Amino acid sequence: MPEKTFNVAVAGATGAVGNQMITCLEERNFPLKSIKFLASSRSVGRKIRFRGDMIPVEELTGDAFQGVDIAIFSAGGGPSKTFAPQAARAGCVVVDNSSAWRMDPKVPLVVPEVNPHAVADYTQKGIIANPNCSTIQMVVALNPIQKRFGIKRLVISTYQAVSGTGKKAIDELFDQTRAMINFLEYKKTVYPHRIAFNCLPHIDAFQDNGYTKEEMKMVNETRKIFEDDAIGVTATTVRVPVFYSHSESVNIETRKPVTAAEVRELLGKTPGVRVVDDPENNVYPLATEAAGQDLTLVGRIRQDESIANGINMWIVADNIRKGAATNAVQIAELLAEDYL
Ligand code: 25A
Ligand code: L14
Questions:
Q1: Tens digit of pLDDT for each residue in 297-308?
Q2: pTM, 2 dp
Q3: Residue to mutate, 57, 158, 167, 319, ligand 1, most ligand atoms under 8 Å from C-beta
Q4: Which of 49, 108, 201, 229 is the most core-located residue (most Cβ within 10 A)?
């Protein structure tokens, strides 16, 4: 039994991310005193296996947090807006995976490999935000480059898996694919267009400036995590018919001169990153390789020959693990080790 143990709640426990959070707590042997699983009333009565026990799902309400030390939320933005402050008032620290609190100046936005010190600001509201999945994997790979060379501008295109939208989208890709290869009618309910055998340049809602919310999350969250509002960021986020792992093409303009060899060497010793870059042997990061583990894979590292200080790379990570659940559990570990 570890010295300090904690009462933990998982809100949104039955979703794609919530499920993985539970697995991460098990895999990483989080120091638990007790655990409870919360979801909407639809899921009450279901049981979830945890360390060999079957634990019943309870309803997510304001009263569910009495005696809880750490609550990890992935129930979507609406429930987070309502219940995270109530949980904080009940005395627990919330680690929230939704977009609801990320840009609140009183809420730290944390990627443990990049800005672990920011956790300390949890005291302001009792809430710590987990960044957007596409942003997490990108800043893990960019952090050593920002530190050594300074980043002036980023031009990003993403190729994002359907699992980011949750279980219903995973089912939709599967069902549409099966229907199409059997020459049957397909249904679309989650996305406005067919995702099977298609690419949709549309993730989350469109904003007044013509960008999607997902694209603007990459702009704003990157600056907040790096504590550097001078970084120029422009993104195009695209949904592709992949179940797990987001892939991203990232063009980086640095402030100081940089070479591909320096970047490759630097990333080779960066915690949380694995360089997968041997094009001669057809070795580069793949969604299928990134899925089911926690490292951010980086490859296709090469000079941008069109500008003075430019690098191109391809960054891939499991969007449900490092992009969501693992990062949230790592934040909870920082809290448990250093703050509570
Ligand atoms: O607003 P955001 O922040 O942008 O987030 C929107 C969605 O994105 C996912 C997450 O979906 C969220 O709902 N998400 C958020 N951050 C993410 C990230 N970083 C992310 N995905 C990837 N990366 P999800 O499917 O992973 O999780 C949904 C969970 O939230 C619970 N939930 C939803 N509303 C709730 C709520 N819990 C409490 N109160 C609420 N008001 C949801 O639980 C799930 O656990 P559930 O009980 O509602 O669903 C259990 C089963 O029911 C099915 N189902 C879902 N919706 C409906 C439904 N059945 C019938 N009708 C429905 N309308 C689910 O398929 C599930 O099996
Ligand atoms: O974390 O892929 O803000 O549909 C919301 C949309 C996560 C991914 C977030 C998607 C996201 C998501």
A1: 999 999 999 999
A2: 0.92
A3: 167
A4: 108
